[in-house]
Amino acid sequence: xxxxxxxxEKNKAGNISIEDAIKRIxxxxxxxxxxxxxxxxxxxxxxxxxxxxxxxxxxVSEQKQIWKCFGCGKGGDVVKFVSLYENITYMEALSKxxxxxxxxxxxxxxxxxxxxxxxxxxxxxxxxxxxTKSPKAxxxxxxxxxxxxxxxxxxxxYSPNHYKVVEFLxxxxxxxLELYKSTQNLHQSSKSIRDIFEGRLVIPIRNTSSNVVGFGxxxxxxxxxxxxxxxxPDSSIFKKSQLLFGIxxxxxxIKEKEEVILVEGYFDxxxxxxxxVRNVVAPLGTAFTQEHAKILSKYAKTSYIMFDNDNAGKNAxxxxxxxxxxxxxxxxxxxxxxxxxxxxxGMKFGKDGVLELLKVSKNIIDLNIESxxxxxxxxxxxxxxxxxxxxxYTQKLLGIGLPKHVIDQYVGKKSFxxxxxxxxxxxxxxxxxxxxxxxxxxxxxxxxxxxxxEWLDKNSIIIAEKIKYQQELSDEELKLLESVNLPKDALEKxxxxxxxxxxVVTKDELMNIKNTLSRKSYVKKYHFSHGKI
Length: 533
Ligand SMILES: [Zn+2]
Fold this sequence. Notes:
By secondary structure, this protein is an alpha+beta fold. It folds into four domains: about 1-100, DNA Primase, Chain A (Alpha-Beta Complex), CATH 3.90.580; about 110-240, DNA primase DNAg catalytic core, N-terminal domain, CATH 3.90.980.10; about 245-410, Dna Topoisomerase Vi A Subunit, Chain: A, domain 2 (3-Layer(aba) Sandwich), CATH 3.40.1360; about 425-520, no CATH class. The protein has 25 helices and 17 strands. The strands form four sheets. It has a six-stranded mixed beta sheet, with helices on both faces. It has a five-stranded antiparallel beta sheet with strand order 1-2-3-4-5, with helices on one face. A hairpin with a 5-residue loop joins strand 9 (about 200-205) and strand 10. The longest helix is centred in the N-terminal third of the chain and has 25 residues, at about 110-135. The site of zinc ion has 9 residues, from loops.
């Protein structure tokens, strides 16, 4: 793996790879231009500029091209030294050194993106190797009856703790660590860098070109206060609204029959693959979007929606169906019986069971016409595109006695699905004390584990974790934060009291804060919300 990362690469302009360029810099000479170095055995020693160093504790290895301080623990390659000393970013330090040493490198976005894919692939391999070292992760997969061949096919992995992937990248190349940071898969605070997937099973997510672009992490133990699935945050290479899990493996099978099966979760895709049904994809824990439908419309004419056997699954099916119909894809609704989701169904009834279920599934518009859900049937039919489909469904609706002028008003009349606000009623129930804390977490950027605050309710914890891991908040959640109208210092006070005493600021105390602030003439700019404290 390492040899692959360090092979000399020349691009079209005759430039060399960034790792090779860094190796061309004389680390001893460069660091000597900042601090005095003295030879000591095969290494060089100097006083560390990053902590109050009385004895020389910073060691530079000419052979390994790295430095390390045994006093404060800082270390890395030559670029890292310059970036720390000059207090500039790694990329800025690299540009500076490239000019100084006339290095033939070109930090273009395209090359950077290709490099990011390389780093993602290395990290994915790293997690995959860690999996077999973890008995509890292996046990988890055995319990779910996922066999080793399937694990290999998807490259499923495991993150043992918060630092191992950071160490792995650091030991490979400081530049790689820097690139990986830009994918937001590490949580950075002033004190530490943490792997956001620590302790989770890690499932690589690939794009249609089979590049790993992100990960989905699942907790190994059922824990109601933890987020069951955590996805990579959106970044330049990872856009949830445009990615479908399993597409890399499913694509040839989708193309073959121009048919796709849509499921809700990672393990639905994985289970169906394992039992031999392979044209299966899933959106990434988010709603199925117009962009998803657009991608599928390139390869499939027919879709089978096989979502979970519950109300949420049924509602999500309708929404996905609208997007698919609007892109000219026929939609069949697959009703799962005697199982809660495709994963369980596949495990119980195997490939034949699934194929039989697909065979008896009905076109979602027909299904709603037959069960006299006329509103829904008309709504779905309003997205039809093809003239023959419009004609066919006009006839069908006439057949059940609907007046022609009503049918003409709807069928085929809409071209895209409007983005209605998805109202999440769970947000409304969140009490004001939690809202203030959530707002404080968002505004004050203090490293605190939401799980440490015992009184937070479950819905608040989910939002707090999202804030902690810098994940996208829904419109509803943002609105909830807006319901708190307090200046930053009031929030900071509230937060520090909460952390120190694990208690809630009383109404009187909050009034005190308010009075203090109003003396500072904040009162004109801010008003206090009238929620219950
Ligand atoms: Zn030091």
